[in-house]
Amino acid sequence: xxxxxxxxxxxxxxxxxxxxxxxxxxxxxxxxxxxxxxxxxxxxxxxxxxxxxxxxxxxxxxxxxxxxxxxxxxxxxxxxxxxxxxxxxxxxxxxxxxxxxxxxxxxxxxxxxxxxxxxxxxxxxxxxxxxxxxxxxxxxxxxxxxxxxxxxxxxx
Amino acid sequence: xxxxxxxxxxxxxxxxxxxxxxxxxxxxxxxxxxxxxxxxxxxxxxxxxxxxxxxxxxxxxxxxxxxxxxxxxxxxxxxxxxxxxxxxxxxxxxxxxxxxxxxxxxxxxxxxxxxxxxxxxxxxxxxxxxxxxxxxxxxxxxxxxxxxxxxxxxxx
DNA sequence: TATTGTTATACTCTATAACTATA
DNA sequence: TATAGTTATAGAGTATAACAATA
Lengths: 156, 156
Fold this sequence. Notes:
Two copies of one chain form a homodimer. Chain A has helices spanning 26-45, 52-62, 69-75, 80-92, 114-133, 141-155; strands spanning 96-101, 104-112. By secondary structure, chain A is mainly alpha-helical. In chain A, α3 (69-75) packs across α4. At the A-B interface, α1, α2, α3, α5 and α6 of A face α1, α2, α3, α5 and α6 of B. The first copy, chain A, binds a DNA duplex through residues 51, 53, 68-70, 73, 78-84, 101, 104-108.
């Protein structure tokens, strides 16, 4: 990597952002970090033909929880109608399949196919690599653990 | 408050979200917390006639940094063209005014008016109250400080 | 030649309502 | 009566390119 660069420009020199309520505002900071992380993930996923949202759904489908579409919607804060579109897309790619939930014939269980597992695996590497270069770059291993733990408490 | 309730449904019972890569994924957690915080702030701002984005710009305009539109764009990760629209909106409301930057005649400095300061003040109370009920509810005071500090390191 | 604000445009994300089939 | 998935639609958010004024 000689002219690597791209990554993400965090903009705004520190000397101009001194006094602002927003800097103490967790909501604002979360929004900004999310924007950085989202951009990072989006760029990393382009070569894989996935959007951040598709990647998230694929991740759930490839895990061991066998979620219904409704589970996916709640977990990712998506409207059920949005899940339909994403699952359609992933199904067209051959990455996931819909299976009838034996406990409730109305529900579709989403499962990653073999091809989907493989695609998720490689995409995940790219996403993690990009993340380590952007949002995690400034944190020590201990801080990363702490941040994860605190976010987890807030998120659920 | 007898039937308070509304607030935000975090959905998904813990017993179904056991094993998932995403739970260790800071990017995912940040996205989810941001969704919660954004919804919380949006609801709190409805009575004030402000959107989250307008509120953020108003906050910067009412601070002591006298930002240009470009500063606002970089700080909030907005495209400069989006800042135009928000400032137009706030100006129509009489909350901010554009002033020529003496150091650069191309640049507009955005300042909160007296009316804007008042509106920001009351809106801020609502936003903070809503936030304490949602994303900060699960954290101790010490944890809030730690979370803020870590997010700040990542955000800039 | 580069940058600030601006206009315009297209695309993605999000919110909402209604319908069907099952429960 | 309520819930899972689906369809449709409108609005908000975001990305991109081009232009005039100024640096």
